[in-house]
Amino acid sequence: MNRETIKGRWSIQSWEQLYDDGRVVCPMGTELEGFIEYSDFGMFCVVAKKGREPFLTGGQWSAVDAEKAAAYSGYLTYAGDFDVAGNTITHKVRYSIFPNWVGGSQQRIAELDGDTLSLTARLEEGTREARTARLIWTRTAAAAS
Known about the structure:
Low-confidence stretches: none
Number of helices: 3
CATH architecture: Beta Barrel
CATH class: Mainly Beta
Mean pLDDT: 91
Shape: globular
Helix content: 10-25%
Oligomer: single chain
């Protein structure tokens, strides 16, 4: 696997977290939308959101705190540079809705099967919340051309 084989836009199909105790959780439910894009020049961007109703009160900045918290909990976005080494993709995070990721790296084990890209990562190793995150993406028509 290399930059050339993964470049382009991929639409998210599923996101599961497989806990070591046997639980399976879909952190954004089954109605999620989003994409990951890998550029020719080594940048990536991830946007994922779960389906949700619009705010009932206020605007973007004047909505009530509960609506803002729900919006944050149902959205993931981060971007930066990436490297590929074997079957490992390293996301070097420059920007993220989750500030603790900024300046760090996120490693993903990648499997490519035709137009399907599977990215997995171990999370919170050594804790009661240890799990494997598995995200499945499909190449979009625009990326395939």
